[in-house]
Design a protein that fits this description.
The structure is a single chain. By secondary structure, the chain is an all-alpha fold. It is about 80% helix and about 0% strand. It is built from six helices and no strands.
């Protein structure tokens, strides 16, 4: 058995850890290259499908990932919120985002309409943020 010097002893465990647990930059680039090639290959397959086959694929993907669907009740709630926002926008001749910024800055006063508009805008904005990942 060979005896390792102090210098070899410190470096060797790092090399071993790097190759076993973390492949380092070379391994990352190899994996990234393989993922890119896989995506390109899948894209070629999808592009070669007929329209009917694409529709079938879309149906299968949608069925396999039901969490990506927005339930109709939520869609209706969003439409209701948007209708209420549009009503306030028409009444006060200003966009909801502009209103909300001014209201939060204290530039518009304390009318009950403004508080309602603010709540509807916050509800709509939060819904949009929650749904953003599913709409990508």
């Amino acid at each position: 058995m060979t005896r390792l010097t102090q210098k070899q002893w410190k470096i060797e465990p790092l090399r071993t850890q790097r190759t076993r647990r973390n492949p380092g930059l070379r391994g990352f680039l190899r994996k990234s290259y393989m993922n890119t090639k896989l995506v390109e290959f899948i894209a070629q397959i999808i592009l070669s499908l007929s329209e009917k086959e694409r529709q079938l694929l879309e149906t299968k993907i949608t069925d396999a990932a039901p969490s990506l669907k927005v339930p109709e009740s939520i869609q209706q709630d969003i439409l209701d919120l948007e209708h209420r926002l549009k009503t306030f926008e028409a009444q006060y001749n200003m966009s909801s985002s502009s209103f909300y910024q001014q209201f939060q800055a204290g530039k518009l006063g304390d009318a009950m309409d403004f508080f309602e508009w603010s709540v509807f805008y916050e509800m709509w904005d939060n819904t949009q943020k929650q749904l953003a990942p599913t709409q990508s």
